[in-house]
């Protein structure tokens, strides 16, 4: 307990200062609560290969699972893979600057330090991984990005923004 008794707390933190501390704490808590984790459910061609890729290659954690589905904890986000066997999966693409990107992909936004460590660790492995690219260079939303293909054919993007305040900026 800060300051001991109620009288000591009031004396140590007069109302304006104590109010500021509470307002700052409430702002911090509200900001944290805005970052809701996402959930995504996708079909899987092979649950065991998928599990191995996400746990051993990407360093994710395993959540609940059965012989029909697995939950993967990828940076506090829940991806459920369901047993589906072979399915038809075609990549359609789009252009961003001079790059052609897969339309259907999902990704994780991480800080630059973690992004660099991930790229350095994953790029020498015998995986389907793109080279690092800077998108929107010298523009709002500038970010580093690379894609890696999982055993199901999904492209997983890892991106790091130069300025996190620009993640959703439009101008």
TrEMBL record:
Gene3D superfamilies: 2,3-Dihydroxybiphenyl 1,2-Dioxygenase, domain 1 (3.10.180.10)
Xref: SUPFAM superfamilies: Glyoxalase/Bleomycin resistance protein/Dihydroxybiphenyl dioxygenase (SSF54593)
Alphabetical list of Pfam families matching this protein: Glyoxalase
Residue stretches making up the VOC domain: 36-161
Family matches, as InterPro entries: Glyas_Bleomycin-R_OHBP_Dase, Glyas_Fos-R_dOase_dom, VOC_core
Family matches, as PROSITE patterns: VOC
Protein known as: VOC domain-containing protein
UniProt organism field: Arenibacter nanhaiticus
The organism's taxonomic lineage, starting at the top: Bacteria, Pseudomonadati, Bacteroidota, Flavobacteriia, Flavobacteriales
